[in-house]
Batch of 2 targets.
Target 1
Amino acid sequence: MDYSDYNIQFIKGVGDKRAQLFNKLGVYTLQDLINYYPRKYIDWSKTLTVKEVKSGEPAFIKATMITPVKEAKIRKGLTLYKCNFTDGETVIHVTIFNNAYLAKALRTFDDYILYGKVDRTFTEASMSSPQIEKAEKATGIEPIYPATTNLSSKIIEKVVRAGLDKVGAIPDTLPEYLLTEYNLCSLNFAIRQIHFPDKEENIEIARRRLIFEELLTLQLGLMKLKSKRATKNLLKMPLDFSEEFYSLLPFNPTNAQKKAVADCIADLNGDRQMNRLVQGDVGSGKTAVAGAVMYTVIKNGYQTAMMAPTEILATQHYESFCKLFDGTDIKIALLTGSTKATEKKKIKLALYDGEIDLIIGTHALIQNDVEFKNLGLVCTDEQHRFGVEQRSSLAMKGNNPHLLVMSATPIPRTMGLIIYGDLNISVLDELPPGRQEIRTDLVTSAYHQRIYKFIKNAVDNGNQAYIVCSLVDDNDSDLLSAKEYADKLSTEVFQGYNLGLLHGKMKPKEKDKVMQEFAKGNVQILVSTTVVEVGVDVPNATVMLIENADRFGLSQLHQLRGRVGRGKDKSFCILVSDNKSESSVERLKLLKSTNDGFKIADYDLKTRGPGDFFGTRQHGLPQLKIADMLEDTKILEQCQECAKYILKDDPNLDSFPELCRQISDMFRKTDY
Ligand code: ADP
Ligand code: MG
């Protein structure tokens, strides 16, 4: 039977009302139910005596009740029930709060198992509101489910039991030889044991299988997406024009840049179509690398498309490449959402006729009606803003063009493997020489008046400043929104100065307009949420003030800091935080001590976890139920190998219908 079509409400013990509670937990079908895993377990067989327990720690104590329950009404709504137990050596004073039902059920001289924190003195012990089970009942391992109001773990447990009865033996998704190869238990065993383990070891065995299942599904899904593109290099480009390109630059490329360009140019003439990620910290000069590769592709006779996540970035790239290629015969055009309809039509026609060599744009570029004569390279900038699907849909245009991706987000290796799969990676691990060190300061809000004065000074000297504050749609009412703060700043603090406001709820067009005004220098102080983090270049901006800095991830702060220090003037990054906690201060101090984006990302990852560092939204990957992409790296690597192996023989997964269903289920919920 198809469990994913079976509505939860028809399972024994559920019904209409309870089904709604399950829905709140994301459980709609029988399939969802059997995949709703316990978050922990209580092993009732692990009993100790009071003397074996450390005071203050939770434990299971097998004990006999020795005094009847005494009831004490403390006040309305609070009734205490007290009684004594003994484990044979020590008397345990037990207090139960409000639970009349439990208190009534207890019988003197019966044996129970008490689970909870044990507070011990020399001669006695006490437990407050322990979980109490009859000794003869409390033998196995009890699953504890993430529960909700009116839907307790106990009820969920009962329903899962009924659900598992209903499904019967669960057919396996993987053939026997793969189970053997990767030392996995059967799916049936895994599902049953993850809910109701017979013994503790089985939990790990079951978990491993389910993690494998989930990561394999993820991996296969991503690989299938990627395999929409052919990998054979149908556009071999034998000529290397990088030196010619370098002679156009007003500076000498760094060794890291040259190495990355050489990697790409080798790809262009390789057996397989280029799929390369160039990863480099803010300011490492990724644009010049892209430029060299695009120049080479164009000189080999092909068209090139460069895609940026925002209009302002696309426009900036357009302007700088126009300048750089001035004097060459390369024809460049800009295509964004705000390009006028008639102009758009002209550009599209010219692209189709091959009259444009380099097209720079935003999402408008990937619309279906843009056609190329001979597209040779697609280059995406700051790629983490694009989903895989968007990337591949541009790549599908034309005759499987080469693909170059640039990202400023440092990514741990296994994570990179997941997100970029078969992409090759070049790292720019060197900053151009002569970069000014940005001075970073960490202060409390008591310094605001001085900071404002400092900003006024900078602006009076002809420079510009960013002020970044908390998100505008933040419900946290004690923090000012960007809008409120901007109002306050323009009316009270910076009267007579030109302020601009940028926040996430503005339309892209409005944002771009403000950004343009800032880039032109008409706006002197830009008050903004984090939307400025993407690689805009305003060399005249020298102050970056970040309010409530402790609320941001370090990598994010680092990206923000990278918005200044791009010109000839000394630049400053001021982090304001009133958070006195040791961990918060330590984090922010790290930022002060280093400018190395990889080091910062590493620290972020270790202390805040992948959720913050790589919010699902940002990396665009589906939410996982049991696997953890950072913890389960070993299984992840096995899955990557296994997925490749499976797809080699069976690219359409014809013999894995259940995996196919799981893949579409997993990817349905994301914006792939
Ligand atoms: P990012 O990697 O953050 O995209 P950019 O490509 O925007 O960095 O480069 C940042 C700045 O550094 C630009 O102004 C660019 O002209 C300059 N730049 C890039 N490469 C070099 C180099 N080798 N020497 C000097 N300046 C460089
Ligand atoms: Mg950039």
Target 2
Amino acid sequence: MKEKNVFHCGYVSIVGKPNVGKSTLLNLFLGEKLSAVTPKPQTTRHKILGILNDKNYQIIFLDTPGLILEPKYKLHELMNKTLHLALQDADLVILMIEPQEQPELKFLDYKKDTILVINKIDLVSKDSLLPLIDSVQKVYDFKEIMPISAIKKDGTGELLECIMKYLPKNPPYYPTDILTDQPEKFFVSEIIREKIFEEYGQEIPYSTTVVIEEFKEREGKKDYIRAVIYVERISQKIILIGKKGEKLKRVGERARKEIEVFLNRGVFLELWIKPKKKWKDNLGMLKELGY
Ligand code: GDP
Ligand code: MG
């Protein structure tokens, strides 16, 4: 049993072949569409952080690309590399398989605590699971074996409790408040902030803050994101924009590319700059910003 009121926090990597339902499970846990869920295999190309916060724990999920056993392209090699990093970073590994499938032992090279999840049990009879569970127990020392259906939300609550059991004692690695509401918004503003830090000298980044004012998913179109960069003075606005607007354009382009990778979909990003005197002292505004 976990001690009460002791904070637990750790990285959990969900691995498995393409299409077994990793993103579906992650999205269910996080209650937000964080990574692309699609019937096509190999859509999740990049490691995506999803963070689940609760009073006594924080789980940082690493969504991973499926292992590609015979890499054909550079992209495949990169995907495998991302996967290996996610496994190295993990405090706990969730290996997901479908019924009828044997666990890929290559995922288990890392000697991490591993929970075997058998997903999509809605597609098979309960009886047919017993022989599978029997046989997987022989190939590896799984900490737990959990049959679930991510789509029907069957067994997923138990799985979450099980994950908590294996989280190490740690203070939260990430802020615990902002992320629960709006993980996408938070990461999007962080990406824009990061680009501002990279593009400008000392003074500017510390005088700015980024607010996502609108974030719309649009049927058949790219997502629309309007971000406002607040500065303290007009002079800072001029520096941010740069000659013929080139500086700001660069920030926008670089941020957009990274946001698209993070969201795994196309984005139309609009950046506005607004001077707001002493925003750093403006309580109402700071609150709005989540400080
Ligand atoms: P990933 O490639 O492992 O991230 O897989 P996805 O989460 O993108 O899911 C692949 C497909 O399997 C999607 O069409 C999901 O709707 C479907 N799927 C996921 N979980 C379940 C489940 O529990 N039962 C069934 N029947 N389908 C599922
Ligand atoms: Mg996926």
